[in-house]
Design a protein that fits this description.
Strand order of the largest sheet: 8-7-6-9-10-11
Strand content: 15-25%
Shape: globular
Largest sheet: 6 strands, parallel
Helix content: 25-40%
Radius of gyration: 20 Å
CATH architecture of the largest domain: 3-Layer(aba) Sandwich
Distance between the termini: 50 Å
CATH superfamily of the largest domain: Glycogen Phosphorylase B
Number of helices: 12
Order of helices and strands: EHHEHEHEHEHHEHEHEHEHEEH
C-alpha cells in the first residue's frame, strides 16, 4: 500500500495545523505516507523526527502550467500510489491523481474555499479514518537536541525564557516592534528574563531596533538559524509572544504557552485549533470577527498582552 497526501498551502503554520491529520492517515493505512508540499512549508525540517513520513515531493514553480502539470503527474505516476488524500478542493489536483493512475482518490468537495482550515481538515480526515481526532498538533523533537540547545544558549530554570515573534508576512499583521521592546522591559521588571528574537534575515530593520534598545543585552536573535535549529530552543522556553506567524504555531506545536497577536488575519481559524494559543485581537473585535482587512495593529491593548504574559510566567 502506497499513500500520497497533498497539502499545497505555503506556510509553516499551515503545515503544522495539518499535522494531526497526516499522522491519522498514516496510522489508518498502516504505512508511512508520501507528502506533496511546497518548500516554503519547511516540511523536511519540521518533520525530521516524525515517523509517519516516507518522503516529501516538492511542489514548486516547475509544476505550474500545463507542462508542469504533466511533469508532476509523471513523477507521481512512477511511484504507483494506491491512494491519495487531497486537502483542497482544486480540480487540478483531482485531475493530477487521475492522470497519475491513482485508484483511491479522497478529496475535499470541489471548489472548497473560505473555510476554517482546521475544521475542514478535521471533518475530512475523520470521515476516512473513522474516529474523532484532536486538532492539537504535537511536533516530535529529539531530547538530545533540546539538551544541547539548553547548554549552548545557557538556558536555566532561574530565568524565564521567552520567544518574541516580531515578524509577520505583511506590515498590517505586525504589532509594532516598539511594543515588543516595551513588553520585554516590563517583563524584565516582573521576572528575570531572556528573550529570543524570532524573525527572518529580511527583518534586519526590526532586529536592529531591538539590538539598539535597552533590552539588547537580554536578547538573542534567531534570524541566522534554520528551523531545525530553532525548534529545540523554542522547546526550552517558558512562553512565546508572537504576531500571527510561523513562530506562534511552532510554539503551540511544541507545547509552549503562546500569546498570538492577531491584527489583520482570521484569529479563530489560526488559533482555535490549539489550547496552547491565547489569541489577543484588536479592541472592539472578537476572535471570530478578526480577519483579513481588520487592520487593527494600532488597536491591540498593550495591557492585555502584558497581563496575559505575566500570568503565564508565574
Amino acid at each position: 500500500m502506497k499513500v500520497l497526501v497533498i497539502q499545497q498551502r505555503y506556510g509553516i503554520g499551515d503545515m503544522l495545523i495539518f499535522l494531526p491529520y497526516l499522522k491519522a492517515i498514516a496510522q489508518k493505512n498502516n504505512v508511512k505516507i508520501s507528502l506533496l508540499a511546497k518548500k516554503t512549508s519547511k516540511s523536511s525540517e519540521l518533520f525530521k523526527e516524525e515517523n509517519f513520513l516516507d518522503e516529501i515531493i516538492n511542489l514548486d514553480s516547475t509544476n505550474d502550467g500545463i507542462s508542469g502539470f504533466f511533469k508532476l503527474s509523471k513523477e507521481i505516476k512512477r511511484r504507483k500510489f494506491d491512494k491519495v488524500y487531497i486537502f483542497n478542493g482544486s480540480i487540478r489536483y483531482k485531475l493530477l491523481a487521475i492522470f497519475a493512475g491513482i485508484k483511491g482518490i479522497y478529496q475535499y468537495p470541489l471548489f472548497t474555499s473560505k473555510d476554517i482550515i482546521f475544521q475542514t481538515a478535521k471533518v475530512f480526515t475523520e470521515t476516512y479514518v473513522g474516529k474523532v481526532l484532536s486538532t492539537e498538533p504535537h511536533l516530535s523533537i529529539k531530547e538530545d537536541d533540546v539538551i544541547k540547545a539548553k547548554k549552548s544558549y545557557n538556558i536555566d530554570e532561574q530565568t524565564k525564557n521567552i520567544i518574541l515573534g516580531v515578524s509577520a508576512s505583511g506590515s498590517t499583521k505586525r504589532w509594532d516592534v516598539e511594543n515588543f521592546i516595551k513588553l520585554a522591559v516590563e517583563l524584565k521588571r516582573f521576572k528575570n528574563c531572556k528573550f529570543f528574537i524570532a524573525a527572518g534575515q529580511e527583518d534586519f530593520k526590526i532586529i536592529d531596533k531591538i539590538k539598539n534598545s535597552e533590552i539588547s543585552s537580554d536578547c538573542i536573535s534567531l534570524d541566522h538559524l534554520k528551523i531545525a535549529k530553532i525548534l529545540p530552543i523554542i522547546k526550552n522556553c517558558n512562553l512565546c509572544v508572537s504576531c500571527d506567524t510561523s513562530f506562534m504555531h511552532l510554539g503551540a506545536a511544541l507545547g509552549i504557552k503562546t500569546i498570538g497577536i492577531f491584527t489583520d488575519s482570521p484569529a479563530y481559524a489560526y488559533s482555535g485549533y490549539s489550547k496552547n494559543i491565547y489569541p489577543i485581537v484588536p479592541e472592539g473585535e472578537t476572535v471570530e470577527s478578526t480577519t483579513h482587512d481588520t487592520l487593527g495593529k494600532d488597536n491591540i491593548s498593550f495591557e492585555k498582552v502584558l497581563k496575559k504574559a505575566k500570568s503565564f510566567l508565574v
